[in-house]
Amino acid sequence: MMPVIGGRLRLGESMQRHTSWRVGGPADRFYLPDTLEDLQGFLRHFAVPPLTWVGLGSNVLVRDAGLRGTTICLANTLDQIVLAENDLLRVGAGAGAVKIAHFAAKAGLAGAEFLAGIPGTLGGCLSMNAGAHGGDTWSLVEWVEVIHPHGEIQRLAPQDFQIGYREVHGHGDACFVAAGLRLIPEESTAVMQRLRAWQEKRAATQPLEWPSCGSVFRNPAGDHAARLIEAAGLKGKARGQAEVSSQHANFIINRGDAQAADIEALVEDVQTQVQQQFGIRLQAEMRILGEAKHG
């Protein structure tokens, strides 16, 4: 007999609902587990490859023809945060980075304030070593738990991975499901003040009123992508309803009904112009997923 597995499986789910750019075609099979046990059972019995893992969809561009196989969304499901020890948080991969920052601050733990500037989940932060304000995710990590494509859970240490600037290698086809974050005890009010100051700065400098993926490009060594894009005269450049933000040049915003193809073309335009003018090929932070429409 097949096991009873909780969660929700949707067919032909529009990825516009699950990406912060509000673009993307349908996912053939879209699964949201209720528990880790649900996820294990689903992987063992029902998942159709290839597998695509998403959280809040803030660091991905899903193309207009969508995603084949099975897309698994962990956002707002594996999102529990627990104070496991005096200064160690056990955090599910589906927990939002902003939620983690506030939990830590209220618990009187410092070191995670920079997460308040990252619009993704812990899983996404771990997969790309997301950072802001001089902090990065893996500097906090004591251990991680990953789930393999057939449902096995494995606990690993940071030294099991190759960790760099906005990239992490070594987990293969496995997906992060939890992590232990080691923080520093500090008076809660002081931590919260820093967190709020960084959030206020973000609100003042980034185009948060428009759909975007956050920063599009990595900062090249010794420089800033936003400076190069602005110096190339690209603020306000558009493809359809996709536009390089006039407020922050490293943001591409959706001003209405942009298509993923518009955004992808604009990314390539920016890369080409910056390389022609400054000899630097900007590398995208976000991942491009799925299939483009043809014809």
UniProtKB/TrEMBL annotation:
InterPro entries: FAD-bd_PCMH, FAD-bd_PCMH-like_sf, FAD-bd_PCMH_sub1, FAD-bd_PCMH_sub2, MurB, MurB_C, MurB_C_sf, Oxid_FAD_bind_N. The keyword Cell cycle applies. Gene3D superfamilies: 3.30.465.10, UDP-N-acetylenolpyruvoylglucosamine reductase, C-terminal domain, Uridine Diphospho-n-acetylenolpyruvylglucosamine Reductase, domain 2. This is UDP-N-acetylenolpyruvoylglucosamine reductase. Transmembrane segments: none annotated. The active site is at R166, S215 (proton donor), E285. GO terms for biological process: cell division; cell wall organization; peptidoglycan biosynthetic process; regulation of cell shape. Pfam families: FAD_binding_4, MurB_C. Pathway: Cell wall biogenesis; peptidoglycan biosynthesis. Belongs to the MurB family. One of its GO terms (cellular component) is cytosol. SUPFAM superfamilies: FAD-binding/transporter-associated domain-like, Uridine diphospho-N-Acetylenolpyruvylglucosamine reductase, MurB, C-terminal domain. It comes from Acidithiobacillus thiooxidans (Thiobacillus thiooxidans). The gene is murB. One of its GO terms (molecular function) is FAD binding. Cell wall formation. It is found in: Cytoplasm. It catalyses: UDP-N-acetyl-alpha-D-muramate + NADP(+) = UDP-N-acetyl-3-O-(1-carboxyvinyl)-alpha-D-glucosamine + NADPH + H(+). Residues 23-186 form the FAD-binding PCMH-type domain.
